[in-house]
Amino acid sequence: MNAAPITNQVPDQREGFRPFFNAVTGEWVQYTAIEDDSDGGFVRFNWRAVPGGVIAEHIHPDQEERITISAGEAHFTLNGEEHLAQAGETIVVPAGVPHSVGNTGTVDVEGVVERRPGLQAKEWHEALAGLVADGKTTPRGAPKNPLQLGATFWSFRHESRVPSPPIWVQNLMLPPLWVLAKVFGVRPYYDRWDSRMTANAR
Length: 202
Fold this sequence. Notes:
This protein has 202 residues and is of the alpha+beta class. 20% of the residues lie in helices and 29% in strands. The protein has a 6-stranded antiparallel sheet, covered by helices on one side. Strands 4-9-6-7 form a 4-stranded antiparallel sheet, with no helix packed on it. The protein is globular, with a radius of gyration of 16 Å.
């Protein structure tokens, strides 16, 4: 991956949330509005993808996602169709529609993302990035510990699902792992991942 010179710079800290980085997807995320601000109506975050960054195909079962590009060019697949979004353009992803996004260019892509309703999108993003930062994932970003996989991926199933293995297989496999995770004290989310500047992370 040929990173641009600004790739490793931390974005400005503002709006009461610290930015966090997911090294697997190559994206910076900094929340600016969470579900508490809107009675659960939406969440909003600043998004930045480094050159070579890819968010693999996934769906948001119960959320519409709206991505407005402010700099660079983002390559989207939306329900199997390819799109190139440039600065000033907005991509709307309806709930349940498979999509992926990547930065195939040589400079960072920046944008603002909204999801409606908000649900637990913030915690889901933080959990994914936190597990990667803790060294607890495979190179593709999946938790190495099956109990962590069950705990996190089942708990946040309304926020995001991957298409493989098929959803029906996940619906059989993940709930028993989620139950075992609870028995053994494996949590889906840890407070130390909270990106709120005032949070008392543990």
